[in-house]
Specification:
With about 375 residues, the protein is α+β, with helices and mostly antiparallel strands. Helix content is about 35%, strand content about 20%. Strands 1, 2, 3, 4, 5, 6, 7, 8, 9, 10 and 11 form an eleven-stranded antiparallel β-sheet that branches.
Length: about 375
């Protein structure tokens, strides 16, 4: 309504200069001119000036004038790069933009599926080492979290975290190392190596097909892939693989060391057709990997489900159908009543078993199925 009134008044004001109007129109024009000269909003439109940044205009509205609920909603909708850009505006916005409440969501959306309890423990250890390094002269010459390496996501944040000591101290007070934002940025820059598991390790090497092994991972923001460091196998050195994609990663389903035998709690429930993962290692110096398989039928069973009693037997048949019939890796048997690590130096050692009930886990193994049968 106010906009309609202003348009009407302005139209009348300018038309009066070129038209012959009655005397009352001249008086109206004089009143309108007086109103416009006293209205700061109209003056700003007619005579725009460059405001002094240090002296805000008295009627200028700031984003900080918004109600807290509205401002929080705007910040909640921003992506990580937007939050980093907004943090450059002023100290008040920076304090809001680095809050854990905003960054918890972004951390969960991008990293939640591959960060397990082991990764969170490793982050705490990383924090301890970061606090220790923050007191060393070497650490004072660089950014605590490597912000200069943030390329695609937070290039604009570099001016917030400058190299001078005073600025860095202010940053440390507004962005604690143990904040969620710090964790997110450490992951994005690749500075934080975290534990997770990799499907079909070493670029899908035939010797690791349909398996999942523990590794330490570092993110490469340029390629949107990861570098994986696998623990040494016996006397073999650490294996490194680059270009690991997101689809080949998961958080460890069992929160335990890869050298520890998993105590299975679902052996008595196993029946033919169930999908499972089983620990296997080449020898006892090696860490376990998880291998995909299916519960099969005993040789005495014809496979007819109406007459099958395999689930009542103490022995369980495990089949790895990615291997050709007759392969020594195709089939094995375990005792579910007194299960422990079983095997030998020739065929390797079988450990604990996980029964798969999640459709997403089963579908993941199906997508990784090799294009040809393995020998």
């Amino acid at each position: 309504m106010l906009l309609y009134f202003l348009i009407s008044c302005l139209s009348f004001f300018f038309l009066s200069k070129s038209l012959s109007l009655p005397p009352w129109a001249s008086e109206t024009k004089t009143l309108l001119s007086f109103y416009f000269s006293k209205n700061p909003f109209i003056n700003t439109l007619q005579h725009p000036t460059t405001p002094d940044p240090a002296s805000p205009l008295p009627h200028q509205m700031s984003i900080l004038d918004l109600p807290d609920l509205a401002l929080d909603r705007i910040l909640d909708l921003l992506p990580p790069s937007g939050l980093c850009s907004m943090a450059r505006v002023c100290s008040s916005l920076k304090e809001r933009c680095v809050s854990d409440q905003l960054w918890d969501k972004h951390l969960m959306i991008k990293w939640g599926k591959i960060l397990g309890p082991a990764a969170h423990r490793e982050w705490k250890c990383h924090l301890s080492s970061s606090y220790h390094l923050s007191d060393s002269p070497h650490h004072q010459t660089g950014h605590p979290l490597g912000f200069a390496k943030i390329v695609s996501l937070i290039r604009s944040l570099s001016s917030v975290f400058r190299d001078d000591n005073k600025q860095r101290k202010r940053c440390a007070s507004s962005l604690p190392l143990d904040s969620t934002m710090s964790c997110y940025l450490s992951l994005e820059t690749g500075r934080f190596w975290f534990p997770a598991q990799v499907y079909n390790r070493e670029n899908g090497h035939v010797g690791f097909m349909l398996s999942c092994y523990d590794a330490e991972l570092s993110y490469d923001t340029h390629t949107d892939t990861f570098q994986a460091r696998y623990p040494p196998h016996g006397r073999r050195p650490v294996a490194i693989e680059k270009g690991v994609t997101w689809e080949r990663l998961r958080a460890a389903p069992i929160d335990a060391s890869p050298h520890h035998l998993h105590v299975s709690d679902s052996l008595n429930e196993l029946k033919p057709g169930d999908h499972i993962e089983i620990q296997w290692r080449r020898n006892k110096e090696f860490p376990y990997g998880w291998w995909y398989g299916i519960v099969g039928h005993l040789e005495s069973c014809d496979g007819n489900l109406d007459h099958c009693h395999c689930h009542l037997s103490e022995m369980v048949v495990l089949e790895f159908n990615q291997y050709t019939v007759g392969s020594r890796w195709r089939r094995t048997m375990i005792n579910k009543r007194d299960h422990r690590e079983e095997g030998n130096e020739e065929d390797g050692f079988y450990g604990g078993i996980r029964k798969l009930s999640c459709k997403e886990e089963i579908a993941m193994w199906t997508r990784l199925w090799p294009s040809s049968i393995l020998e």
